[in-house]
Design brief:
Layout (H helix, E strand, L loop, with lengths): L8 E3 H8 L3 H9 L6 E3 L2 E5 H14 L1
Antiparallel strand pairs: 1-3, 2-3
Length: about 60
Amino acid sequence: MPAEENKKTIRIKNACTQYDVSRSTIYRAIDDGKITPRKLGGCTFLSVQQLDSLFLGETQAA
C-alpha cells in the first residue's frame, strides 16, 4: 500500500490560498510541466507533494 502522503491532492482554488499564488501561476506551472493535474469529473486536483516541491523548494533555495 502506498504511503498516504503520496495520495494527497488539493483543488486549484485551495492551492492558490495555501501557497499564496495566483491561478495564473498554477496554470503556468501546469503548462510548463512542473505540476501534473488530475481530473475527477469536472474537478481538477493537484498533488500536494508536487506543489510543495515547486513552491516551498524554491523558497528554501533562495
